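Design review, sub-item: ligand-bound model
Attendees: FS, YL, KQ
YL presented the inputs for the iron/sulfur cluster complex:
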Amino acid sequence: MKINFKQTPEKEIHRLVEELGERPYRARQIIDWIYGKLAVSIDDMTDLSKDFRRRLKERAFISNPDVLKIRESGDGTVKFLFGLEDGEAIESVLIPNGRGKFTLCISSQAGCALGCVFCMTGRQGLRRNLRAYEIIDQVIAAKRHLRSLSPDAAPSIANIVFMGMGEPLKNFDEVVSALRTLTDLMGFSRRKITVSTAGIIPRIAELAERAPRVNLAVSLNATTESTRNRLMPVNRKYPLKELLAACREFPLPPNRRITFEYVLLDKINDSAEDAARLVRLLKGIRSKVNLIPFNPPGETAAERFPEPARPDEARILEFRRILHRAKIVATVRRSRGADISAACGQLRADRR
Ligand code: SF4
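KQ shared the predicted structure:
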């Protein structure tokens, strides 16, 4: 059976080149074609001899993402809808940071089993885990898109965040494999990659071991066990208190912080008492807080939770003020791409 280069570790590519009787530097050329020059097929690799390409094609191929739709928001956010080989669909979102740089938010699963009540992906349930190459293909598609906008001076992807569809730590091995490809073969700095979790506690320490020095983000969203139980069913298995203990143990490199994401839901988790409790909970953790005012998905999870709504601006600013007063770095994330359902919590890979 042929191997998919994008699912193949570097040392296997070297082994294949050796088996085919070629010089070792050929492996580097192949890698550069796939991840640097974004080759679509082995035939693109024009500095390899025709004969070598023919022999390579007998043993390997390059998968290509099937981009079903690209939608652009008025604010410059771009949402990609991908079709997978088995008919599943996923999304990723490219968000402009200014000055020709973008953050790419990628998916790690089709759907998600965790069922957070404020999240459209969670309402789909889990369809399946993504393979590493399906994660990498999202990055390749985004790079190709940016290159198509400006072939000579393409804008670049400055940050990659695993905050799209799915819980990355529930697809641990494939995510770790994709992280290796991103850092070792695509040249992304570990400090520019963030893996976000809803709190799969046993995997947090393991992430630090298997993918050292990538950033950790934790989707927190509540300051009491009871509220978190209601918002995020995963809390019943991995309670808030134990989650924060795991965060305290996380080996943070110097000058780094754990990002805590906090979706603000009107009169559910956005009171001054919540803000004060959050200050106490984060004591002793080098942290920053991303406050994300809820993005209504157009329908509510009314059967699970009555009418989650977006707090008004005064409540949002008061919450942030309490964090700032306690010297906690906190920003209000003005979600981009809400007009194309690309904002946080809105991804559902709708093919319409
Ligand atoms: S917020 Fe994340 S973990 Fe929760 S249901 Fe949505 S995708 Fe899954």
